[in-house]
């Protein structure tokens, strides 16, 4: 468990280092991602165009160009357009065109193009009484609520001759708004009588999409309103623009200069970003917004479409090249963007990204991070796997809800990146740690534990803790008889081959029955069941393993006998003693934190070893304690009475294993057990001669190695008969050897 929490700490630190700094650094990549999210929000829920909005676009479209020729038109025709719009009751006429030069089709331009002096004089005489087109246009401007456009640039006039007055409250807005070194202005004759002058510039993002629009900019020390803001001012007949910045009355900034908060023009107070910018909520282009300049010039436009509205005049024909990209559409006429800004300003359909948005997003990201990392380590995998997409869905759903209902732009992308990044880092770290733990488990146990047990243990490596735990185990201890006699005369290589040939089938028998091999001690094997994982019916599986080991030893001896006969050398049979015991043992890492040694300790382990030694005294191969016999009573057991082994004072009832469950149901075994129990009854009654006679009879009729058991018992009973019944006699056999 400590290791798991250590992994959690490391994973948390790694994830924090990878994903959290983004929120504090706010790199451009994060801003780009945020823009993609907000753009898709607008596509999912665009502002619906309302034909009752106070704006229209009078456009130089394809039909107008086809009728009146290529652009630019003579200023006299533009003057006619202004007059028509004034007659129809336009509240403001804003031009998204620059009139920075004299009319190319004007009289002065015609005279300047004449290279022949005589021809120039003749033209001057003919045109002397003709009115100049720029003068006509200037006259039309003077009679109408016209707003002209200016372009902020690097070269040009060094001040912006604003038509409006500016009233500032709070910090000086000049420190916060976008600044340009110069401005390209209209021809002075036009500028003189125009009611408004506005900047046509945009501030597109890196992908050239117009998302934020500055309502105010600066040229040198002079402020410049945007074309849309100036058109709104002129339409209302307002003479000034009020700018409210940080630390103004009612604006709590605690002395910090945070920027512009709002711009008020006429009856509209517009909340802005810190640089006096707004984020329009765009609508898709709609034919109802646009009116062809041809229709206005030819008197085909209903008065209701113009009267009381702000009219933007600009290029609608694609060939004129005045196009922009918005979050909704990649190609939109620039003049329509101006119109949509006014629509958003007047309808209140502005999007807002408050100055506290970044702080809130950081807080949400931190909360998501704190929830994600521990969940990976304490919750089931399917829960932690489901949390990440669910959290991302909640973040995006909540952000979209606030966008649609409140017009708030709160970024779900960064907190979602934190969730996803944290999950990936945590999951990879946990997977790596668990993979290493499983690999360590398989390396440590793969050769000593059944594969199925290893697989289950690899899923819970935390169980392998230093010091271990107390569990009820079935313990098996086996040893070769007369190993010294067998190994005598063998070379080191032959002895190694012999041991490998013997230990391999013995180990396979244990592993196949879900046992764990604790260790090899020369020719001895210590194994146990029910650790490191719970093994159902483990005493029975240990008994089955003992029977398989008995059969494997017969095969082993047959193979060695055949090899000895083929080599012409004598063959010595290998015999095995095996003890089985059941009881509480301590199991775990009995080494150190540096050397891993999963082992068992305890009195019940020692008893299993003593039972193996008792099998030698009884001249039989497998002896089990009463606890094992009671846990697997349907096996073929033969009681051997009670013994006291070396190192213990309490007697232990022991049993010899005659066979498996199938054999226990056979008539042969039933007859054998009946005769055996009759022999034991004579012994317990101290009728030693009768007991010896029955033992001798069984020794003469039983097959295999079993006669040796009864020969041993006959000798014991006969010795007791010769000695006579002693005072305080007990049927308990006290063993003096291990």
Explain how this protein is built.
The structure is a single chain. With 738 residues, the protein is of the alpha/beta class. It has four domains: 2-43 and 355-440; 48-348, no CATH class; 470-661, Nucleotide cyclase, GGDEF domain (Alpha-Beta Plaits, 2-Layer Sandwich); 666-738, no CATH class. Helix content is 46%, strand content 20%. It contains 25 helices and 28 strands. The strands form six sheets. Strands 20, 21, 22, 23, 24, 25, 26, 27 and 28 form a nine-stranded mixed beta sheet that branches. Strands 1, 2, 3, 6, 7, 15 and 16 form a seven-stranded mixed beta sheet that branches. Strand 26 and strand 27 form a beta hairpin. Helix 1 packs antiparallel against helix 15 (413-445), helix 5 (75-87) packs parallel to helix 8 and helix 15 runs antiparallel to helix 16. The radius of gyration is 51 Å and the shape is rod-shaped. The two termini are 41 Å apart. The mean pLDDT is 85.
